[in-house]
Amino acid sequence: MIPKKLDQQAASAIKSILQKLNINNSRVLIDLEKQTIEAQEDEYSIDDLLEAAGSITPERGEELLEEVKRSREA
User: Fold this and answer.
1) Quick check: 18 and 6 in contact, CB under 8 A?
2) What are phi and psi of 60, to 5 degrees?
3) Are β-strands 36-40 and 27-31 bridged in parallel, bridged antiparallel, or unpaired?
């Protein structure tokens, strides 16, 4: 996907529409073809994963982060 920058007025208008639909996530994926909106969860850093999982290696943390990214793309 190629990100596109929105001007403040457009962003505010879209945010207002989403709030009417009770969608308050800061990141959403809008598919106009399928007419769906997917609210995306906040992304977590490697440090967050390490803290939550206890003691794992940074390499394993990277692997876990990649697995999470792949699962969100599916």
Assistant:
1) no
2) -65, -35
3) antiparallel
